[in-house]
Amino acid sequence: MPLTNRPEGVRRMIHSMQHCVSDAGSPAYLYARELEIIPTMLDVYSGAASKVLSSESYINCTFPKVRSIRFKFLDPSALEQQAYNAIASPAIESNISAFVQRIKLIAPLAKKITISVSPLNTHEPLFLVQPFSDLVAQLSQLAVDIDYQLSQQPVIFDQWLSGLRNLVYENFDSADGSEKIMQLARRSASTLKSLDIRVAPVFDMTSLIQNDDGSYVQYPCLHTFKLNDQRGSDVTRPPVFPGALPFPSLRHLEIGSLNHFGDDAVFRGNAATL
Asked: Where are the domains of the chain?
């Protein structure tokens, strides 16, 4: 149920919020559990998105039961790309911040953020990098579930992931970039509670529990670990850290059938927790 039409091709907004306007007096929106937000980058950059959410129609909209927000960013058109190029950087930063603040007010108890985007085959990849980084950075105190489907765009993958840290949930489904996923996991080691990885390339467990300098990484809060590696027979055995327990709080472990960990040192100490 779309929220608004996009006058002059600029606005495209929230999926469930129509209840606040068209169903005035109806309590239906009070029971919504998830919001789907479907803007283009230009909507956020130009300030159109935050203006819609700050308008008289929506300024008092609050979803008390929403726990999950899904951002689905659409491909920019050629005209939108040109319009973006005309916006000054300070204005972009201000508009992104205003948009995120409105989202926080609309769904103050949200605990899960999902970000998805369709592959960009014809547009400038850098068009997406900064807003993703800024949005997630400002929402990183919430649980962030990343539905990443830009394996065709390694430039975006590298630049976007490099700015994220201290996440609570990571959920990756990617055909590329497993090393980048592991780097993000290490940066979030102290806060990560759930890690779900579905990757096609060879998965190197070493990079999950060992930093580039060889130091040991522990995940004190991680309670759920799921791995489905389509070429699991090539999984690298990690080094043994004497007395180490990488996942002291692990309670749920799922390993794809193609993985052969055997008596892998990574999970050897979890007999009492699983």
From this structure: 1-135, 165-256
